[in-house]
Write a structure and sequence with these properties.
The chain is α+β, with helices and mostly antiparallel strands and 639 residues long. It has 23 helices and 22 strands. α10 packs antiparallel against α22. It is elongated and about 120 Å long. Belongs to the cation transport ATPase (P-type) (TC 3.A.3) family. Type IB subfamily.
Length: 639
């Protein structure tokens, strides 16, 4: 049932967009025909615009009326539009039909925008679902059998070959490998896993074949929990949206009741004629319709979106532009967000009798055939140096690598591994290495054979580089008045605190799973209400969806993060977050100004209509004039 439902929703939303376009086209042609004096053609085209553009709003309004016993703005707009058309036909003032068609067009466009938001939600869920393979190799009677993920049972043993995605959560029962868990935990380096340790669906197996025992149903895997969390967070309606829904229905009730009273009471209270009464009642429905109020918001937000796009900030909807200006707390992911997400050689520490070049050349020669990220980083750092690849290379998983370079034995690895060959590491180098490790760096040692033993050449520190603009961005955000800035990461405590100290965040949460990040966002929302989350990975998706405003890195971000987030930084420039907040605050100020102007015009027109000082054409001019005025005001954000 899942795919047919998606297909139905997809076609319906595109039909809404098509209906809005056709409504606008028919409205224009009808106006043109009326202008040329082709009344018959105009009276064919304009009703068609009403039907095509207003069908969905009429259906929803009537459904709400009869099923929920509630009135909403959809129904109010249809009544106002039909009332304007009826009055136009009655008095032969045909431009009133065009005014009603404009009301219909506005609501048709609104429905199409809502359809776009729903499609975006669906795409984010589909992207998550594509992270795991559809099948797995199961060992049954000592033979491999490929079965659907849905057919896996607790206790099944599956085989995962090097370079393959792990299909479901499980416990390793045989084998050793490195697992790239960046999609789940955000760790910058692959994690070494062996017998007895847990692996997660959607993570990438490294160089070793693994035999994994399924210890929970596939639907209970971590990635499936991430999917459910994203679905839940995206469907939860924020309090502000609930308030808007209540306001719309309350406003509609007030206007409808007032319109009915105005259509019935004046002949008995003030002796108005029925023609005058009906005329004033229909005028009331037109001038009281909230077109100016709607125009007070959307043009401003759309202008802000366009302004942001020119600066590499993609706002996915206007509501998020408004929300970003209210942000009081921001949570940053570490890997790929505050850092570049790519491990690099941070520092080379040569022993006294060797040079920086000697150490890098020797390490690169041995690591030239390695697929490990650390080895790749060393080779990349030595790309401009002259060296010859090692022979008889042998990797010792979790420890290091050995080889022969120009008939000389070489070893590269962690301290424990190198100490198997070198009796004592130089004290000065050891102290520097310990200091770097406390800062969250990974240190590998390099030694070469000499006589019957080995001699340490030096050490190389590897680290995920902090983005150059990260610290300045944090400082700028604090100056803008953001009250709390935290960092969320699946990485270890030492690395997390080292990065946090360098960039200047207020609080650090380390060794987190996706659901942990989600919980922290919820706690921050309880304290600060409007909270932004900045991330790039699949592991950030639930937190991005839950946050009041989710911000994703455009270049480094995963497809899921990009689809889930409300704002995308297209060039990964963190400093643009401050620009987005400034745009959000300006949009709020302009929206408030426009609302005051719109309400002022509505009140003035209502009073004038009640006192009999305006006729319907003047009411339409005032109504449409106020709409144009606030629209032009909103366009100021294009500067």
């Amino acid at each position: 049932m899942l795919y047919p439902q998606r297909f139905t929703q997809f076609t319906k939303e595109h039909a809404d967009t098509l209906a809005a376009m056709l409504c606008g086209l028919l409205l224009f042609l009808g106006w043109f025909a009326l202008h040329l004096g082709a009344l018959g053609l105009a009276l064919l085209l304009l009703p068609a615009a009403y039907v095509i553009g207003g069908y969905e709003s009429a259906r929803e309004g009537l459904t709400t009326l009869f099923k929920e016993k509630e009135l909403d703005v959809d129904l109010l707009m249809i009544v106002a539009a039909v009332g304007a058309a009826s009055l136009g036909l009655w008095r032969r003032e045909y431009y009133l039909i065009i005014d009603g068609a404009i009301l219909i067009l506005i609501f048709a466009i609104s429905g199409a925008l809502e359809g776009y938001a729903m499609r975006r939600t669906e795409r984010s869920i589909r992207s998550l679902m594509s992270l795991t393979p559809d099948t797995a190799r199961v060992l049954r009677q000592e033979r491999e059998e490929e079965v659907s993920i849905n057919q896996l049972k607790v206790g099944d043993e599956i085989v995962v070959k090097p370079g393959e995605l792990i299909p479901t959560d499980g416990i390793i029962v045989s084998g050793y490998s490195t697992i790239n868990q960046a999609a789940i935990t955000g760790e910058s380096l692959p994690v070494e896993k062996t017998v007895g340790e847990e692996v997660f669906a959607g993570t990438l197996n490294g160089y070793g074949a693994l035999q994994i025992k399924v210890h929970k149903p596939a639907e209970s895997s971590l990635i499936q929990r991430v999917i459910r969390l994203v679905e839940q967070a995206q469907t939860e309606e924020p309090p502000s949206q609930q308030f808007i829904d209540r306001f719309e229905r309350g406003y509609a009730k007030v206007i409808v009741v007032a319109g009915i009273l105005l259509a019935v009471l004046p002949p008995f209270l003030w002796g108005w004629s029925w023609e005058t009464t009906i005329y004033r009642a229909l005028t009331f429905l037109v001038v009281a319709s909230p077109c100016a109020l709607m125009a007070a918001i959307m043009p401003t937000l759309l202008s802000g979106i366009a302004n942001g796009a020119r600066q590499g900030i993609l706002f996915k909807n206007g509501a998020q532009l408004e929300k970003i200006g209210k942000v009081r707390a921001i949570a940053f992911d570490k890997t790929g967000t505050l850092t570049t997400g790519e491990v690099q050689v941070f520092q080379v520490i040569p022993a006294s009798e060797y040079t920086h070049t000697d150490v890098l050349q020797a390490a690169a020669a041995v690591e030239s055939g390695s697929e490990h990220p650390i080895g790749k980083a060393i080779v990349q750092a030595a790309r401009d140096l002259d060296w010859v690849g090692a022979v008889e290379v042998q990797a010792i998983p979790g420890q290091g690598i050995v080889g022969i370079v120009k008939e000389q034995k070489m070893i590269v690895g962690n301290a424990a591994f190198v100490q198997q060959y070198v009796i004592d590491l130089p004290k000065e180098l050891r102290e520097m290495a310990q200091s770097l490790e406390q800062e969250g760096k990974t240190v590998v040692w390099v030694a070469h054979g000499q006589g019957d033993g080995y001699l340490v050449m030096g050490a190389i520190a590897i680290a995920d580089e902090v983005r150059k603009q990260a610290a300045a961005t944090i400082t700028r955000l604090k100056k803008l008045g953001v009250e709390q800035i935290v960092m969320l990461t699946g990485d270890n405590e030492e690395t997390a605190h080292s990065v946090a100290q360098e960039v200047g965040v207020d609080q650090v949460y380390a060794q987190l799973l996706p659901e942990d990040k989600l919980d922290i966002i919820r706690r921050l929302q309880q304290q600060y209400q409007t909270v932004a989350m900045v991330g790039d990975g699949i592991n950030d998706a639930p937190a991005l969806a839950q946050a009041s405003v989710g911000i994703a890195m455009g270049k480094a971000g995963s497809d899921v993060a990009l689809e889930t987030a409300d704002i995308v930084l297209m060039a990964d420039r963190l400093e643009k977050i401050a620009v987005a907040i400034h745009l959000g605050r300006r949009s709020q100020a302009i929206v408030k100004q426009n609302i005051v102007v719109a309400l002022g015009f509505i009140m003035l027109l209502l009073v004038g209509n009640f006192l009999g000082n305006i006729n319907l054409p003047i009411g339409v001019i005032g109504h449409e004039g106020s709409t144009v005025l606030v629209t032009l005001s909103g366009l100021r954000l294009l500067k």
